[in-house]
Design goal:
By secondary structure, the chain is α+β, with helices and mostly antiparallel strands. The chain is built from ten helices and seven strands.
């Protein structure tokens, strides 16, 4: 006898703000259904007041990141069949961030820490100078390339235990961005950037749990980037470049 295939899934969605609660919906199952499809079905057919964030639907923008059965994921690329547990799904907003409403997290603290880590390019030349030529085979370029594809979705930040324990910690994405700039030979801001990432809440707060690397949808390794910052800031300290 062919096993009976479930036709619905029981979905618990976070409602309200930090003091909210989970509300359960019964949602029809479809072939190749994603978690974002589930959330969209609830908003369109069961409760139009449900708040959530998405844009591209094809794994490019990262704005649809949510917590699915305890782990942060891009919901547009997460198939229900891969994560459903005994016919149930629990979907909440990203952890370690304030909740605006329902499944929508406030990304402001995430980007504020990105700025605290001085994750902005500081040009060493002007528009009047010739374009800088950077060999794609250089060690610095290869190191930057390994970390540069971050799209700031916040999954690593939500997965990070150190962020959970330490509100001042800059987080994997901000430090990963700083590492790409440290290795950009065109950048002129490294002295102050290394000072920033070596300060309280910086790279030396990382405990190397590697949850950021394990869950990054872009297959990046922020733990490796942070380890690079630890080495580089120590070198700068020994040379007297940091106070």
């Amino acid at each position: 006898m062919t096993p009976e295939v479930a036709e619905t899934v029981e979905v618990s969605l976070w409602r309200g703000r930090e003091d909210g609660r989970y509300q359960t919906f019964t949602v029809p199952l479809r072939q190749s259904q994603t978690v974002l499809d589930i959330v969209t079905w609830v908003q369109r057919h069961a409760d139009p007041t449900l708040s959530y964030r998405f844009a591209c639907r094809v794994g490019v923008c990262g704005s649809c990141a949510m917590t699915v059965n305890g782990k942060p994921r891009w919901t547009c690329r997460t198939h229900v069949s891969k994560v459903v547990d005994d016919g149930k799904l629990e979907i909440g907003p990203l952890a370690n961030l304030p909740v605006i409403k329902d499944l929508t997290a406030d990304m402001a603290p995430f980007f504020e820490k990105w700025q605290k880590a001085e994750g902005r390019f500081v040009p060493s030349q002007t528009r009047a100078d010739n374009l800088a030529v950077v060999s794609p085979e250089s060690a610095e370029r290869r190191t930057a390339d390994a970390a540069i594809e971050c799209i700031n979705c916040g999954v690593c930040y939500a997965a990070c235990d150190t962020v959970r324990w330490n509100d001042s910690y800059m987080g994997p994405a901000a430090l990963n961005r700083a590492w790409t700039l440290v290795n950009d030979v065109r950048d002129a801001g490294n002295r102050s950037r290394l000072s920033a990432v070596a300060s309280d809440g910086g790279c030396h707060n990382c405990h190397s749990h590697q949850s950021c690397e394990q869950l990054c949808p872009a297959n990046l390794n922020p733990t490796a980037s942070i380890a690079g910052l630890k080495r580089r800031t120590m070198q700068a300290y020994i040379k007297g470049e940091l106070g």
